[in-house]
Amino acid sequence: MPAQGQHRKPRSLSRLTRICVIAGTGGVAIALPLVGADIASAQTPASAPAAVAAQAPHAAPKAAPKATQYKVVRGDTLSKIATSHHVAGGWHRVYNDNKTVIGSNPNIIRPGEKLTLNGPNTAQHAVVKKAVPAPAKKAVKPAAKPAAVKTTDSGYTKPVGNAAIGTPYHQAGSNWSSGYHTGVDFLVGTGTPIHAIAAGTVVSAGWDGAYGNDVIIKHPDGKYTLYAHQSQLLVSAGQTVTEGQQIGLSGATGNVTGPHLHFEVRTTPYYGSDIDPVAYLAAHGVTV
After folding, report:
1. Which terminal CB of the chain, N or C, has fewer other CB atoms within 10 Å?
2. Which residue range is the domain that position 23 belongs to?
3. SS3 helix, strand, coil % of the chain, rounded to 5?
């Protein structure tokens, strides 16, 4: 070994070579003098790539998708949004991240709602979803047939049970584009069954602007009834319904301040042809 605190010049290249050979065959690491570093490197070129590979940094993890805001437009569904924006976890993730905006029913989203896509929990959700085994399938009971209310001799009945009327027909106010209320509001909570007041044919069932989700039915006497702000629709356009048949569930979709059923009677299926719904029901033996 060199003296303490000093470096000694090797006497010959052959001695240094012998030291390198012994170190290589015996597997023992020997600290070489600094003056021989260049020579040692020149004699062991095969070790250089291994050293470089050992020092190579690990590949950076792939960044999670960046969260974005999306504004719902007419015709959107959670599945369609998740697919077009490549949301990890699909529509389930979109719903879970936006439940406070959408509400309790993932089948109903309203134009104008702002949803967060690929939120901070999306990547974690995708990993957990893969790690957890799929639950065993359970037998699914067939859906119950929509309930019907008690019919009357006149062939007409109430659209909801014994609910009080909130805003009456023709109440004036700036909340309505016509300057007055075109129907009556029955004060019922979200999820209350809604029934067709008489037999007829469904003219339309779906999103209808300020009315939210509504159903319009044409009756044999030529009049039309409208049932607005529903949280769930149970009929579709072209379907025939009977008196008292359940057609949906009440809710707060569209332009509302709270859940209720807005009920109208019209002479045509179009806005502005309304008549007094309470008087119409009374003329057919139904008191509300």
Report:
1. N
2. 13-50
3. 25, 20, 55
